[in-house]
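>> Question from a student workshop board

For tomorrow's exercise we were told to take the sequence and the ligand below, predict the bound structure, and bring the output to class. My setup keeps failing. Could a helper post the expected result so I can at least see what it should look like? The ligand is magnesium ion.
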Amino acid sequence: MENILLIDCNNFFASCEELFNPSLKGKAICVLSNNDGCIVARSNAAKNLGVPMGMPYFMAKKKFKNVIYLSGNLKKYSEISKRIMKKLYDFTPSVEQYSIDEAFLDIKGCLNCHKKTPVELAVQIRKEIKEEIGIDVSVGVSKTKTLSKIASEIAKNQIRKNIQTKTLGVYEINENNLDKILENTPIQEVWGVGSNLHKFFRKHNIINAKMFVKLDDDFIQRNLGKKGLELKMELIGIKAYQVIDYYVAPKSISKSSSFKEFTTDKAYIINELNGHLHRVCIKLRSHNLRAGVLSVMLRTKDFRVDSEKFVFDIPKDSEFELYETMHRLFNFLYKEGVIYRSSGVTVSKLTDKEDIQLILFESDADKKKKKLSNAWDKIEQKFGYGAISVGIKKKKEEEK
Ligand SMILES: [Mg+2]
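>> Workshop helper replied:
Here is what the output should look like for this input. Compare the format with yours to find the bug.
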């Protein structure tokens, strides 16, 4: 039975902007990443003009002059996302939010009480979200998460290309169409196939998903291990991945963004990194976690990625404990004269804060820093994100 649904909001950030300002409907609009670095969402009209995803804003505004560019407002989008996610629990208790605008649903246990087929239920979910929240979603219906993901992409394309179907915005992959769809799905478009896996497939001349599932299990096991076999199972309709409807602590937390313009400016990049670190730490504390590893990443204009990490003896969760290390990593990575396009901060090797042993080793200075961070959280919860920030204190001679 096809009982996994993927709900995916169409052009989510752009749709939210249309919701706030209906005069934007039907127009070519692009939403920009924080500090207006690059394009992170496009309306269908902008997609049809050929505006590429991820293009830096300063380039896009020269090339596509008739597009309306809007600064992103993640806080507003998160509020709409929360309303959509909450709505999904009306249909099943088994909801896994996968990203700000996507969720997997397992509807196995509740089809009887809804007295509907999976596709009928998907149509109803789509309709209610549109009517009550105002956001257009696509729904993929199938036996596994991986197939539902492919199905939702097909549904989305049908909307964009204005292909009229009986269940517009909903697409089901079942045993009748599975074979044809696997053949029509380029292997690199399958969920979970990253650039490394794609390289392997290219080397072995595997172009589409059908060619992959035809491979011998032994061959897959030998070359790609368990992950490869799971991918094959998922693609032939055997569940390897469950819908995770319980809390799982994150394994790592990252924040990154493109710069407003390509830059060589050291102070500007440090300021950006300070912002990332703060947001990473907010998230760490909200999950009650501490970080054992801190990594800093710089991406150059020609997409080379330079990164460096530091491993702590005692895991940390306060900006004030991490700033110094971050700056040291940055100074190591930064090269005079190199043009950079983006930066990022990642923390990993996360452990639970409640681990009593850690606290025993904590110095008084560290405790003070923690208190400072907690106070910062409270101020921002009251007055909003960015109410205060850490500045770079210039040395006396630089001030002249
Ligand atoms: Mg989406």
